[in-house]
Design a protein that fits this description.
The complex is a heterotrimer, with 1 copy of chain A (260 residues) and 2 copies of chain B (195 residues).
Chain A: E1 16-18, E2 23-25, H1 26-34, H2 45-59, H3 64-85, H4 91-94, H5 98-128, H6 141-144, H7 158-168, H8 186-198, E3 202-203, H9 204-207, H10 213-228, E4 233-235, E5 244-246, E6 250-252, E7 255-257
Antiparallel strand pairs in A: 1-2, 3-5, 4-5, 6-7
Helix pairs in contact in A: 3-5, 8-10
Chain B: H1 2-15, H2 22-29, H3 33-49, E1 54-59, E2 62-67, H4 72-79, H5 89-101, E3 104-105, H6 106-113, H7 118-126, E4 130-135, E5 141-145, H8 147-152, H9 177-191
Antiparallel strand pairs in B: 1-2, 3-5, 4-5
The chains are: A mainly alpha (260), B alpha+beta (195).
Chain lengths: 260, 195, 195
């Protein structure tokens, strides 16, 4: 039914990319990623999406099937990439070899195809039923009137008193005094952490002692920033354990060697 | 062709909840008016002579199908069974307000509950646990409970409604129940942050 | 008696807007279940052999009358609207996934479709083709199909849906997808470039 050339679904190969790490057709990039010849971490997926949108604009039409397929592929890539960005969360997923990654993408694509076919079946089925109409008029009121003698006690009257009791309860006024406008900034916390670093290593708990939750969050954000800039490194022996922060042992040509 | 017309007329009558004029059928089927009238007559005879469960009746507004009077007892047994699924919290609250404050208007119920009572009240009306009881001085429909309500709750009369003191969180407050419910409802409404 | 039963069943079917179980008819008519089933079967044959405008159908686990599809053009002219608006591709895909995987969560639907299912699911909920069916262990709302879905799609039960394997992509499609995933690069490298 499908031939490898000349059909709507194949038009994805027309998508030419010009990225920092790669220039060429989209499916070649996909192949190279799956074979780990290009590091997925280095690929800016947003750039691919923008290229695809430009591509659509140039064509002046939206090919639904090709668009769906592109979305499935890019979503699968995004998920793979997000797993790579979160080391330690699912270690077995990082071990995914190119064959397995391709297999996973293939399963996705097959599922998408399968349910697209099912959808077409359901649409056809609904259309084939359109000649069957049902009467929607309510039955005559005279026939519907409940017959009193048939009725038996099925509800507990206490339910009514309980409902009224609940409605009589006047709610506690909401206390909003504890909500304060957070004034802490990343810049302040960066300065704080740098000051601590100058004294040598420190623990995260120490850095946020007696701070409120917003300050803790902003401090963590500042710490990530320090790490990104190569100014700090950290170790955490166990999940939810304290984090020890130190200056990197050595800094070589901007690349970071983690001190252990 | 005429069998087809009779078939089509039967389907159109089945779908119509109100009586329909022969001229309307003529337009829908593309047949002549006299053909439609003949078709309807044959349909009427079919139901009558074959002793079907349906009857074709000519009313002021046109033609309509209805069920044969002989089937009425079975129809009642099918349709008039009291439907008594468990009440949702919204329905229980609405019903309790009507039971204790009757007659009470829908806007008042909404004020006490702090939320719209539209759908709960409709369900209770449909299940014949509450009914309309005239209008308030501002024109709002008033509700009261029905005899079926008493029956379904095993109550001899409204005087047998449980004393709310056992469920009342603030029994020391001496005030009219209605006033206190409204005050609590307003407090609830103002406690919910507005949009 | 049996003519009476058939007559009564016809009237009860006419009055019921939703499919009704044979057991409910047995209760309403006072007849035995097997008599009801036989009566319904004879009614079905009557509509079919006498070419009536109505059809007796088994839907969503019960029995319901509908109009004969031959009468659809006239019904459309009379009621001036199509019976059920068609589904968009996104709605149909979402419905397909719910029908086959139920109960299924929205994120799972999105994962299979590769795109957000928000708006399609809302429309299907609004059209009452799907409904909520509790929550998953992660708190996501689960969906299942409704009886209205079965009714609209002419199904007696979910078992009547074709085996999902029926919709497996053809082997050559699967081979082609595999090919594209792994060998498109090579193929392109050796082929003449350009669209």
């Amino acid at each position: 039914m499908r031939t490898p050339d000349a059909n709507a679904g194949m038009r994805l190969v027309d998508l030419e990319l010009d990225l920092d790490v790669f220039a060429g057709p989209f499916d070649l990039l996909l192949t190279l990623i799956l074979r780990e010849e290009i590091d997925l971490l280095e690929v800016d997926l947003a750039e691919i999406v923008i290229a695809y949108i430009d591509h659509l604009e140039r064509r002046g039409e939206l090919e639904l099937e090709a668009a769906t397929e592109f979305l499935v592929l890019i979503a699968a890539l995004l998920e793979l990439k997000s797993r790579l960005l979160l080391p330690g969360v699912e270690p077995e997923m990082i071990e995914l070899d190119p064959g397995e990654a391709a297999e996973e993408l293939l399963v996705r694509l097959l599922d998408a195809h399968r349910y697209r076919a099912t959808a077409a079946y359901l649409q056809g089925r609904l259309a084939s039923q359109s000649g069957h109409r049902f009467r929607s008029a309510p039955p005559p009121a005279a026939l519907r009137r409940a017959v009193l003698p048939d009725a038996t006690a099925v509800y507990d009257p206490a339910m009514l008193a309980a409902a009224i009791g609940g409605l009589l309860r006047i709610p506690e006024p909401v206390d909003v005094r504890h909500i304060t406008v957070p004034k802490v900034t990343v810049a302040e916390r960066l300065a704080h952490l740098r000051a601590l670093l100058r004294r040598g290593g420190f623990s995260f708990d120490e850095a946020v002692a007696r701070a409120d939750r917003v300050t803790v969050a902003v401090t963590l954000f500042a710490l990530l920033e320090l790490h990104k800039r190569g100014e700090a490194t950290w170790t955490q022996d166990e999940p939810f354990g304290d984090i020890l922060i130190e200056r990197p042992a050595t800094v070589q040509a901007g690349r970071l060697t983690v001190a252990r | 062709m005429s069998q087809d017309l009779e078939q089509t007329l039967e389907a159109l009558l089945f779908l119509s909840s109100e009586p329909v004029h022969a001229a309307v059928f003529a337009e829908a089927t593309g047949a002549e008016l006299h053909e439609v009238v003949t078709g309807l007559e044959r349909l009427r005879e079919h139901y009558e002579f074959e002793r079907r469960g349906l009857v074709l009746r000519e009313l002021a507004g046109g033609y309509a199908l209805s069920t044969h009077p002989d089937t009425e007892p079975a129809a009642r047994r099918l349709l008039a069974r009291p439907r008594t699924p468990p009440l949702t919290p919204a329905q229980a609250e609405t019903l309790a307000i009507v039971a204790y404050l009757q007659p009470v208007s829908r806007p008042e119920i909404a004020r006490i509950r702090g939320v719209n009572a539209e759908s709960a009240a409709s369900t209770l009306l449909e299940r014949e646990m509450i009914e309309e009881a005239g209008r308030s001085q501002f024109g709002a429909v008033l509700y009261r409970t029905t005899d079926l309500f008493l029956k379904l709750f095993g109550l001899g009369s409204l005087q047998e409604l449980p004393d709310i003191a056992t469920f009342d969180p603030a029994p020391e407050v001496e005030a009219e129940l209605r006033e206190r419910l409204l005050r609590a409802g307003e407090a609830r409404a103002s406690a919910i942050p507005g949009p």
